[in-house]
Amino acid sequence: MSQNTRPTELLRQGKAADWQAATTHAFTRELSEGTLPEDKMRWYLQQDYQFVDGFVRLLASAIAHAPTLADSVPAAQFLAVITGPENTYFLRSLEALGTQPSTDPAPATKAFQDLMAEAAASGRYENMLAVLVVAEWVYLSWASAENPPKPDLPFWFAEWITLHAGKGFEGVVEYLRGQLDKTWPTLTPEAQAEVTRLFHRAVELEKDFFDAAYAV
Question: Which residues are CB-neighbours of 76 under 8 A, at least 6 positions away?
């Protein structure tokens, strides 16, 4: 990898087509415009909420494997956001849309659940970071362009944008990227190949999940 380009950027460039598809998807565009049908948003939230448990476990595993306390603190602070405001957003939105959380994962949902579990079970900090970076960076990439949201959007659209944009969330993504950037040069070629596989698979699955939601 070039010494002048961040490892996370080169990892992203290695899956550029799928990254572009995920971050400029019709689903996110219609969500931001307020034209996304409620049945699509309802399905999306029911499925996305099923990620919270696995994501919390993955993030907690990363906290436990961080090299130092200083490395773990930003992730611990982010964990409080996921289990607090973001969890509350899901419950409020599902209620407003007249539905309940689901425990029936679609194939695209199950695939990403499995990837998060694989990364957590590996016991390797860099593998956990690979999936976490993609999961948050993809959302920052599309939501930043739509922030602040249109003033007339229902809260289940508007707050999904604001949860994934702004200086606070930018800081989360920069922290996660920085951790992976810092770790990358210390890895063996085999470990770097594993990080690359997980990173690229996560990008594919982000695209697949939006495809599945939009196809409902």
Answer: 63
Per-residue confidence at 3, pLDDT binned at 50, 70, 90? low
Exposure string for 52-74, b = 16+ CB within 10 A, e = fewer: eebbeebbbbbbebbeeeebbeb
Residue 4: other Cβ atoms inside 10 A? 5
Pairwise CA distance, residues 97 & 181, whole Å: 40
* Angstrom distance (rounded) from CA 17 to CA 95: 36
pLDDT in tens, 128-168: 999 999 999 999 999 999 999 999 999 999 999 999 999 99
Q: Which residue has the tokens 């930003």?
A: 74
Residue 107 CB-half CA count within 13 A:
5
Residue 101 corresponds to which amino acid?
A: P
Q: What are the tokens at 146?
A: 């739509």
**Sign (positive or negative) of CA dihedral 168, 172, 177, 179:** positive
In whole angstroms, how far apart are CA 154 and each of 26, 74, 92, 145?
18, 30, 12, 18
